[in-house]
Amino acid sequence: MQTADQISRILNSTITSYSDCDSIIREGIPWESVSSIKVELHLTDEELAGILDMNPRTLSRLRCSKKSLSTSAGDRLFRLIRIYALAREVFENKDGARDWLHKPQVGLGSRIPLDFIRTEAGAREVEDLLGRIEHGVIS
Predict the structure, then answer these.
(1) 20 to 30 Å CA-CA from 57: which of 2, 12, 31, 66?
(2) Residue 43 in this model has a pLDDT that exceeds 80
């Protein structure tokens, strides 16, 4: 599985396949993993809530209760983690990946990748752009 080491680190679990990820998502990604990716990507509560498709107050309650994410919110968080791990591979460091995810990209019609990945279709577009960058195709 591509980017497995980075995904394992963020989720604080051993990941060897997408089946492992599916199990973690279904069991509920713990708040510690949510907090970790929020800090690492310098996300605001509003940005993270938007990516997870939840109200910022719901996110705040989740943080206070330290509960795990629902399956649907966990799936959205996994999408973010997957894209971030891929960006780290392409840019070869976390700072470059984080900065790229926060800035408008010409290859996405000058939209911000973090906004684009709120849907699976948008995430696929971001993945395609990262692939083109990795292979030196003008993007």
Answers:
(1) 12
(2) yes
